[in-house]
Amino acid sequence: MSSSTTESRLVRRLLIGIALAFLSFNLLLPLFAVFSEALREGWQGYQAAIIEPDALAAIRLTLLAAAIAVPFNIVFGVCAAWAIARFEFPGKSLLITLIDLPFSVSPVIAGLIYVLLFGAHGWFGPWLDEHDIQIVFAVPGIVLATIFVTFPFVARELIPLMQEQGNDEEEAALSLGASGWQTFWRVTLPNIRWGLLYGVLLCNARAMGEFGAVSVVSGHIRGLTNTMPLHVEILYNEYNFIAAFAVASLLALLALVTLVAKSLLEWRFGRKAVAGH
Amino acid sequence: MTVSVHHITKRFGAFTALDDVSLDARPGEFLALLGPSGSGKTTLLRVMAGLEFPDAGAVLFDHVDVTNARAAERRVGFVFQHYALFRHMTVAENIAFGLKVKKPVERPSPEAIAARVRDLLGLIQLEHLGGRYPSQLSGGQRQRVALARALAVGPRVLLLDEPFGALDAKVRKDLRRWLRQIHDETGVTSVFVTHDQEEALELADRVVVMNHGRIEQVGEPAEIYDHPASAFVADFIGEANRLEVTVRHGRVFFAGVDLGPADGHGDGPAILYARPHDFVITDVGAGAIPAVRRSHRRLGARHRILLSLGDSGATVEVETLGPLDDGDVCHLAIQRWDLFPA
Ligand SMILES: Nc1ncnc2c1ncn2[C@@H]1O[C@H](COP(=O)(O)OP(=O)(O)O)[C@@H](O)[C@H]1O
Ligand SMILES: [Mg+2]
Description:
The complex is a heterodimer of chains A (277) and B (342).
Chain A: H1 2-38, H2 42-51, H3 53-86, H4 92-104, H5 107-118, H6 125-130, H7 139-150, H8 152-165, H9 168-175, H10 180-209, H11 212-218, H12 228-237, H13 241-276
Chain B: E1 3-12, E2 15-25, E3 30-34, H1 41-49, E4 56-61, E5 64-65, H2 71-74, E6 76-79, H3 91-100, H4 110-123, H5 139-152, E7 157-161, H6 169-186, E8 189-194, H7 197-203, E9 206-211, E10 214-219, H8 221-226, H9 231-236, E11 241-248, E12 251-254, E13 257-261, E14 268-274, E15 279-282, E16 289-299, E17 302-309, E18 315-318, E19 329-334, E20 338-341
Parallel strand pairs in B: 3-8, 3-9, 6-7, 7-8
Antiparallel strand pairs in B: 1-2, 1-4, 4-5, 9-10, 11-12, 11-14, 12-13, 14-20, 15-19, 16-17, 16-19, 17-18
Helix pairs in contact in B: 3-4, 3-5, 4-5
The complex binds adenosine-5'-diphosphate and magnesium ion (MG).
Magnesium ion is lined by residues 41-42, 193 of chain B.
């Protein structure tokens, strides 16, 4: 007996060791590299790389894209989850599949779709040209691509949650005289708030970090259509390592903050679930 | 208030959950909807509440057509089978909800709301638990909060869907007496759903027996028990022995024994229902069925004796009948029965 337990203990340690080593090598080491590279010439160099106009423009554009994509996703996600969790309608399973599409399609393809639709030689290209509207290789294209790649996040988080909760409480609210609007604000939303926040967090992280889809529709015009990830790539290709890593470190920070917030929420979620039933 | 449903039909896809149902709940009445699972009780209750809309027929509150009025406009109190308390609100907030969502002109002042909540907490005997969350209450306490929440808005009718369904036997019994008491104090017309006949017969002024989306019988508990209107009701309510009999020349025959007059039943095969206490031991003679005692079982204070009847293969359960042992032979007479077409 003792030999088998020591053996299993050994195996356990080995497995944990492998996992940790792998994690350190693939995640911690790069993270460390990003920051050490960014700070190689000290705080001054780091700061200079970030307040440089093109970098600021990239940060602004990234924030703008996220600021549009996230609210859009909240509205879309809540509507879609509501429809799917509460109603039976033809095409429901198709809708669920469609919501997952951005997960299964390469982001590059997502970008190309918009080029195909709105590019100079695309379906709507001539019409857009006539009306002097620029979508591809401009900010609207970047926002559209960001929305496309992020739209599963909120909906996917809410659908199982709302399905599990059922609509008893909403019916109770209605029978007590509440309007649909009051029911939504006072009953539905409070019940899904943590799940919603979780979805928003993941959605935001993806919106700010997206590279592939945005890269295709961006056109890489410095100071105009570069988001942070694109800006990092350009700087890197120009061998401007310190600046590249400085901007990259901001994205890494975002990832860390997201991770911490996510853990906090999970902790909160877990406790809720235990207390709830 | 009188709640009437007229010729209600409700379908879910191809399935007919309610089939031409008509019913009146009289003012101040405590009405039970009783039936097996899937018979359409909940659906009927939800149609009354405006949580479900019928495909045909009308719902009237005091003779006013509310068929197309939404739940929020009907001023009904609905108590859900699984409580449906707002999980993120305290007990007091749950109870106050219906008052707080009223339009500003109709909404009582915060002090008035607080006073009303205090009164209701007193009524449900949970004065000290107003600050708790639903997850911190027992099933029975949750159900009482759900009732207080429904009563808070002064509903015109109280609709309860299996209010005790999820509770254990002891809590159930206490709670249902208490509910009846609350009903008698408030005097609000109440309709409650149950699949438990004991609950329905003990609690209700009148019982509506449902089966397959139709009403089988409406009547006072004693009437339902003593004079079942259909074979289904006879079988479903109370314990009943079912015997296949034949009617010939206006008399009922079982295994060749003439049991008595058939009271207008046409000749041919028929089904006879008789309660365990309708059987007596008798001497050989007219209407006496030879029987053999097979076994005995106890249901708490009551006893049941299982006998096989002659060589018909039929068995009946009857109440204790004097000193008999397993294997003893005797003769049984049936004092009272209900006869239905086979
Ligand atoms: N929303 C629904 N969709 C489809 N079928 C339903 C729905 N609600 C009820 N039913 C069906 O209608 C029948 C009656 O249901 P219900 O009224 O809940 O019965 P009861 O309360 O008597 O058990 C059941 O067979 C049930 O499956
Ligand atoms: Mg039911």
